């Protein structure tokens, strides 16, 4: 139940040697919180303490972390009763990629918002190579794909290079302006023009698409989760965009798309009346180093989000990281402003906000965890005052971190082999393909098994050179998997996924032991490896623990999955 008076604590007063803990009321967080300060001054701890309280209080939130440390830490604080509320989005978990398609199910009135957000993100990344021509063409590519069912960012290059695919997409366009571009303008572009503008787009977008870490996430048409469901259901989304593991450009692109998708989800709340909207839960979005992800739509988010109960807490290091437009939106819309120690330039800018109580000299001389702030109190901004931030909230004695990661993988991720097979098929089989990637909550087990059978057999054929009579054929494997399956467990599917991912991952490093026919395991001992009676083992990886081993007999049993 929403309580507008609920206080989220984050600091203590330090005047007159009297320390009193204080925070911000839920109703005042709707005007957003802005935090600025040099690195190492305590910004992350402030955000962590607020997010931990939201988690413990049952609130819905998303935390976008470009460093990874806070994302890992927050998993430690999730109580047992909220384990299933968490979506842990870690792009570097390449064995189990989450599907995230920013182009999925975008209504006609929101397509330009998505297009502008993507263009802004690309422009920031390619700032030295950006041109008006590139932007014009890429804008029309994106707007065309947004109308075509099942489109992803992977389709951008295909739209420019594959005439058959392009014709099918163009035939589906309803926007007259976009259609005119493709039917009247694009057809007249000469080869030289396309080499200069079109090839430049293909080269730049290709840098992302060629990276399987990004491609396997953005190349799936159906997203693993819906942000509107997350917001209304008070779920938790923790996004670990560790730039050291993901890459700065990849992290910035993914973060920008996630923020755009959250904003779209918030705007979709306009489909309910005022009475219903007032009863929807608040959703808290935390963005550390937000300037990395702030695109042109960020100004709109700051001004419009509060109407739809989306409350932002944003932090970064210095003002020059923001564009003029975003800077104006921040200082014009943020209700609570917190500053740690800043540099001389920032101090001069911030002095206008904190004068006459504090000067620029005061701002550059703040110590560790010391802050000056203007706090929104009952809808009114307070006079500036000083405080110190709270120490980190103590960790619970029992951590469910590994369980959360496993649960998130099971519910929102798919094995890399499955994803890559679907994307590969899309490229190979033509312009429109019905991807085999229904949401993980309701997987098509029969189809998934089929792909896994094929991948297993491919791996065996490629990596293991054994006598034919000692291999299990695809047909035998299928037959074995369907025997005695009156009471199979669907939970086995996740174990099978894990086994497959491990086999694919390790196939180039070590040779798998041969798989012996169940009916020949004892009778053919004279023809097979003497160790055949000992079930050969295939390694699987469990993050944070010693690799688990699974025998081939166990693997066969895992294939006994109910297909109904």
TrEMBL record:
Residues 25-342 form the Type IV secretion system coupling protein TraD DNA-binding domain. Residues 460-469, 507-525, 539-551 have a biased composition (Basic and acidic residues). Residues 526-537 have a biased composition (Polar residues). Pfam families: TrwB_AAD_bind (PF10412). Coiled coil: none annotated. Signal peptide: none annotated. Residues 460-494, 507-564 are annotated as: Disordered. Residues 473-492 have a biased composition (Low complexity). It comes from the Bacteria. This is Type IV secretion system coupling protein TraD DNA-binding domain-containing protein. It comes from Candidatus Zambryskibacteria bacterium CG_4_9_14_3_um_filter_40_16. The lineage of its organism: Bacteria, Candidatus Zambryskiibacteriota.
């Amino acid at each position: 139940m929403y309580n507008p008076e609920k206080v989220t604590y984050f600091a203590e007063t330090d005047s007159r040697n009297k320390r009193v803990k204080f925070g911000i009321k839920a109703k005042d967080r709707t005007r957003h919180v802005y935090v600025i300060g040099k690195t190492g001054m305590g910004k992350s701890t402030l955000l962590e303490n607020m997010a931990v309280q939201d988690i413990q209080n049952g609130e819905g939130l998303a935390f976008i972390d470009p460093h990874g440390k806070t994302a890992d830490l927050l998993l430690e604080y999730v109580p047992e009763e909220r384990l299933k509320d968490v979506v842990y989005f870690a792009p570097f978990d390449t064995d189990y990629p989450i599907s995230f398609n920013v182009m999925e199910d975008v209504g006609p009135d929101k397509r330009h918002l998505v297009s502008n957000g993507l263009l802004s993100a690309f422009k920031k990344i390619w700032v030295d190579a950006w041109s008006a021509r590139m932007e014009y063409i890429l804008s029309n590519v994106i707007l065309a794909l947004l109308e075509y069912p099942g489109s992803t960012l992977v389709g951008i290059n295909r739209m420019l290079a594959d005439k058959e695919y392009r014709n099918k997409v163009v035939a589906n366009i309803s926007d007259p302006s976009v259609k005119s571009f493709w039917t009247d303008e694009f057809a007249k572009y000469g080869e030289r023009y396309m080499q200069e503008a079109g090839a430049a787009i293909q080269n730049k977008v290709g840098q992302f698409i060629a990276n399987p870490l990004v491609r396997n996430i953005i190349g799936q048409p159906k997203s693993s989760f819906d942000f509107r469901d997350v917001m209304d259901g008070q779920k938790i989304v923790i996004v670990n965009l560790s730039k050291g593991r993901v890459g700065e450009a990849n992290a910035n692109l993914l973060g920008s798309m996630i923020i755009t998708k959250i904003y779209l989800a918030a705007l979709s709340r306009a489909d309910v009346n005022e009475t219903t909207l007032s009863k929807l839960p608040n959703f808290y979005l935390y963005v550390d180093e937000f300037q990395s992800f702030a695109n042109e739509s960020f100004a709109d988010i700051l001004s419009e989000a509060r109407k739809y109960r989306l409350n932002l807490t944003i932090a970064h290091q210095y003002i020059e990281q923001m564009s003029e437009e975003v800077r104006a939106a921040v200082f014009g819309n943020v209700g609570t402003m917190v500053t740690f120690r800043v540099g001389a330039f920032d101090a001069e800018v911030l002095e206008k906000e904190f004068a006459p109580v504090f000067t620029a000299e005061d701002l550059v001389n703040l110590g560790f965890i010391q802050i000056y702030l203007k706090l929104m109190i009952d809808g009114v901004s307070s006079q500036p005052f000083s405080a110190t931030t709270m120490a980190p909230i103590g960790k619970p004695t029992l951590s469910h971190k590994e369980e959360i990661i496993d649960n998130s993988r099971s519910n929102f991720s798919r094995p890399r082999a499955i994803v890559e097979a679907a994307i590969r098929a899309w490229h190979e089989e033509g312009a429109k393909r019905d991807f085999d990637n229904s949401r993980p909550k309701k997987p098509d087990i029969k189809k998934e098994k089929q792909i896994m059978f094929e991948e297993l057999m491919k791996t065996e054929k490629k990596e293991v050179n054994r006598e034919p009579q000692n291999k299990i054929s695809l047909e035998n494997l299928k037959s074995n998997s369907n025997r005695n399956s009156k009471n199979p467990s669907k939970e086995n599917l996740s174990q099978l996924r894990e086994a497959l991912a491990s086999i694919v991952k390790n196939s180039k490093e070590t040779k798998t032991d041969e798989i012996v026919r169940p009916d020949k395991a004892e009778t053919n001992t004279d023809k097979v490896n003497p160790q055949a009676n000992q079930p050969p083992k295939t390694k699987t990886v469990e993050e944070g623990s010693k690799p688990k081993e699974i025998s081939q007999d166990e693997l066969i049993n895992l294939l006994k999955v109910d297909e109904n």
